[in-house]
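Continuing from the previous page of notes. For each protein in this section, the sequence appears first, followed by its structure tokens. Read the first protein now.
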Amino acid sequence: MLTEIVTAAKEYSTSRRKERLLLVQGDVDSREMYAEFFRYHGFQLIPVATVSDALTFAPHADVIVTETLLPDHMDGIEFIERLKRDECTKSVPIIVLTACAWDTERERAEKAGCDVFLAKPCLPDELLRAVRRVLASSTSRDVHGWTTNADVPNETADRRGLASDSKVSEWSRDVVT
């Protein structure tokens, strides 16, 4: 009886995989506030401060929320352009959340390929609605509930940059920078 309960619990937990959100925010206070909010709402996330860190984790994300002003060698718009040129990340939805709300910045972000542009200050509930909206319309997410590389067919693993011998344990825990 106990074995049946444990098996049922495992099946339930793997079928209810959390959405993976990559949060790219240079400002530590914004990053921590939004990260805590999304954890509370059941997302599996990785909050990072730099584009170089974001590029490492982007192939494994279901959705990316990024700032345009980042403390790195490229800004958020260049980051989006790079993601949209890459086969592994071109279909991952991107939300820009920025204090640079000028029309020219919005146009640059949209031209680069962002799905949603939000200006700060932005209530967390508004960002959550935008994330849920892009995830609902996204075809890039992992709809099969795969949680390990062993569960992922080879062509999907290759597309997402997951070699069969690598582990994506970063998504099994939150990484705080």
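Done with the first. The second protein uses the same format. Note its length before scrolling.
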Amino acid sequence: MAFIAWRVAHETAITLHGEDYVYRDDGQRLDVIAEFLAFIVHLVDRIAYEQLPEEVRNEFINGLGAKLAEHMQDNRMDWQGPGDYRSPFVGLLNERFGEYAEESFDEESGPGYSMYRHVGHCVQRHMSDDREHENRWVIDQVMDVEGPEIYRKIEVAMRNLLDTGSIDLTPPSELEDDVYVPKPGEGVVGEES
């Protein structure tokens, strides 16, 4: 799921650029990707809420956040040089998680207007305020186009993930050293036994 989340956030940032929203530099683009990732992690949690036992859901969301923090660390080091980028990203995830929890979400239709507005506002705060490029309108683009498209993609990915049984439903207490060890006769999905 982390790969899909990163790809969706990255593609959305590229789409914004294609719509003539301008990034000052790669750090700013990564800030926008981080905001989209925080939104995506919250969407995944909301979608999984009714589908997974709480312990499993918590483990899944924490694992997703940790993997995305690794991706963010690697990408920021490539573009911005050495530094601790993981901690600020985890802080952002935690901060946004609390904020998005206050926003409306319907199991049938997904995020409400207020959630899309919130993610649009978060993205807008990172965009250049260069008047020439009209980045101040990015909030509308995120609310009306990008946010719903992100939800559509993540909802499909989560439905596929849940339908295929790819999420291990073993409670975390039965994991060895935070790594799932399959029982005899069980293989990894897609692996021959």
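What the second structure shows: Residues 2-166 form one domain. The longest helix spans residues 54-80. We return to this in next week's lecture.
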